[in-house]
Amino acid sequence: xxxxxxxxxxxxxxxxxxxxxxxxxxxxxxxxxxxxxxxxxxxxxxxxxxxxxxxxxxxxxxxxxxxxxxxxxxxxxxxxxxxxxxxxxxxxxxxxxxxxxxxxxxxxxxxxxxxxxxxxxxxxxxxxxxxxxxxxxxxxxxxxxxxxxxxxxxxxxxxxxxxxxxxxxxxxxxxxxxxxxxxxxxxxxxxxxxxxxxxxxxxxxxxxxxxxxxxxxxxxxxxxxxxxxxxxxxxxxxxxxxxxxxxxxxxxxxxxxxxx
Length: 260
Ligand code: PGA
What we know:
Blueprint: E1 2-6, H1 9-26, E2 31-34, H2 41-54, E3 62-65, E4 67-69, H3 80-87, E5 99-100, H4 109-122, E6 128-131, E7 153-156, H5 159-165, E8 178-181, H6 184-188, E9 193-197, H7 203-211, E10 229-234, H8 235-238, H9 244-259
Parallel strand pairs: 1-10, 2-3, 2-6, 3-5, 6-9, 9-10
Antiparallel strand pairs: 4-8, 7-8
Helix pairs in contact: 1-2
Bound molecules: 2-phosphoglycolic acid.
């Protein structure tokens, strides 16, 4: 795993945007895997700025989001579709028929999840997947003990996740208890993964993910097996990494190699 440690949230977001924008420029009809939560908001702001000021073109891009709350309609203010529309889609020139967020209202969840997987396949697979990380180590909503080979399905959220996400709802009882999420196996098939984490609250789980054993108890740790995963962290989230200095050294050396 490549580990990039940036000074702060802004620098983390800019670095991530640089990598996503490179993919979009090199392959204008690329398939982006997107994430919700507070972590990628800065990335989406920067992509919006690049679109408005530099003409970064999303007209042929297609997107697939990782997850959606079960039971919430796309126009519910806490739904992930709504989040994506408000934080990215409405600010850039992506045709809305090119965006895919799991439908939280489907009756036949199993058939729908198989269909979501099929749509990703039909699109040619995901070129770059943006990931946040939950306090319990989840990627997507793959809570601890999720199969590391899992596919898109319905998951029961942990009490911790419900609590963490209650900050966006009026009361904790309003937080959905289930979500449709891409599986760990689905995420592992994406060509490149971009794991973002900021803040001291994520320091422990980031250390477990990057330097701990690969375990279904911290589903993000499986990214150690991904052939092209970049973790972009701020100083606080990187604070508990034992090999922090080495990761910074690698980045300096790589820069030197490409400059020379
Ligand atoms: P956060 O959530 O970005 O709001 O911290 C991350 C996650 O739960 O995946």
